[in-house]
Every structure is written in structure tokens, then in C-alpha cells.
Amino acid sequence: MRIYRDTRFSEDKSPYKTWVGIRFWEGGGKAGGNPGYFFGFDATAGGLHVGMHGFDKAMLTAYREAVGDDVLGPELETALAAVRGAGNYEVNGEHYKRVPRGYDQDHPRADLLRYNTLYVSSPGIAPAVLSSAGLVDVVMDHCEKMAPVQQWLVKVKHRALA
Question: Which of 47, 70, 92, 136 is the most buried (most CB within 10 A)?
């Protein structure tokens, strides 16, 4: 992730980026095509995100098939319930207004079929914690609580590659 920009000939001398981001992912290839963890912070706060921020066409198809599946669909509901029950975590990814073609509008997981990505965001991490020795423990705690969604996405990604 580029941190600098050439401001020599620009009237706007503001920094290109004022935050630091670190991404860890599971699987081969580029980070964006695999489920993973993203930790980012700036001078005011930090946060952790788990999942995928955008599905490519193959992964979107695999995701929809998994949501509609009689085994993987309920597993996702269980994973999301575990994450939501673990604290103030925000589930993101709903994009479409309608259920995609080929799926029943009254599907029990119709809300999840409208997603075009799936990731979970942690509550903000205070600056005092970011500069303390306890940061690693706080991040690990969030990672463990959000792991069910990550593990489910890894399972779906492996299924998409098969």
C-alpha cells in the first residue's frame, strides 16, 4: 500500500495516506482474493476487520451456493450469531436490494444472498490501547471472536477452487 505521493507540483500538499494497514490472509495468490484479517490504525483510532472486502465472480457464485446450501448456510448463520453475540461487532456486505435471480425471494437466508462481500468490523480501538503493550492481547481477542466468519469463508473459498 503506497504511503507517499509526489507533491512537488501539486497545490494540495496533504499526505496521501494518514493511516497504517496490515493484512494477513489465508490461501495462495493476492490478499484481495482471499479471506483474511486487516488491522488498521491512525492517530485517532484503530480497528480490525475479518473476511473479504469484495468477491470476484467465482467467489460470489461460491458464496451464494454456500448460503443456499443446507449445511453451509446454517453454518454461516451460526458463525454470524457467534460473532454478534461476542460483542459490538458489525457485519458488512449487503449490497443488492433484491435476492439474485435463481433464488427464492422467500429464502430463509434471503438477507445473506443480497451480500456481494462479507466482512466483520471490530469496535474501535482507542489510541491509548494502540500505544500500549496490551494491544496484542486486544487484537487477539477480537481475532478469536471474529474467527468463525473467517473460517467459514476459507471453507467456501476452498470449495470454489475445487
Answer: 47
Quickly tell me which residue has 439474485 as its cell: 100
pLDDT in tens, 19-42: 889 999 887 777 678 999 999 999
Spell out the residues 6+ positions from residue 129 whose beta carbon is closer than 8 angstroms to its own: 46, 135, 138
Instruction: Give 25-94 as a 3 state SS string.
Output: ECCCCCHHHCCEEEEEECCCCEEEEEEECCCCHHHHHHHHHHHHCCCHHHHHHHHHHHHHHCCCCEEEEE
Q: Which domains occur in the chain, in start order?
A: 20-161 (3.30.1460)
pLDDT (tens digit, 9 = 90+) per residue, 51-71? 998 899 999 999 999 999 999
Rounded CA separation 75/50 (Å): 17
